[in-house]
Amino acid sequence: MAEGPNRSIGRWLDVTPVAPAIFPDEWRILPPLPREVEEGAACIGYPLSSFFANQGVVPPGRSICLVCPVKDPCLEYAMTHRVKGVWGGMTERDRDRLKAERKKEDGERDD
Q1: What angle do CA 52, 74, 85 make, to 5 degrees?
Q2: What's the whole-model pTM score?
Q3: pLDDT at residue 19 greater than cutoff 80
Q4: Which of 25, 32, 47, 88 is the most buried (most CB within 10 A)?
């Protein structure tokens, strides 16, 4: 079992970490992750499928983000690169809403 923050998470989530603590090869097609995210993310070693909705059900991987020490930079990465799935504890829909809220707040500040 992988070491680190995700070790205890596997006990209370219906998500089992996969052996060595590395990001899945599928993630390598994305722009490079910030070093702090790649090295400190609580999701390291969990199946990629844990971070995608299945028939409208909230992805179980979203709970992993609750205890992640690099949740904020992970979220900003996702906002910048428009990636799919859960990043920084937010789904794509959540991030779209956050982006709209930020845009609205920025517009109100400019007035």
Answers
A1: 15
A2: 0.68
A3: no
A4: 88
How much is the CA Rg of the chain, to the nearest whole Å?
Answer: 15
User: Is 61 within 8 Å of 15 (Cβ atoms)?
Assistant: yes
Contact 84, 51 (CB under 8 A): no
Per the prediction, the chain carries an average pLDDT of 77
Query: Tokens 């998470």 appear where?
Result: 9
What tokens were used for 84? 């799919």
Give 25's contacts (C-beta < 8 A, 6+ positions apart): none
Where are the strands (E) in 1-111, listed by range?
A: none
CB atoms within 10 A of CB 20: 9
Query: Lowest-pLDDT range, 10-19, 21-30, 93-102?
Result: 10-19
CB of 19 closer than 8 Å to CB of 58: no
Tokens of 86: 């859960």
How many other CB atoms are found less than 10 A from the CB of residue 78? 24
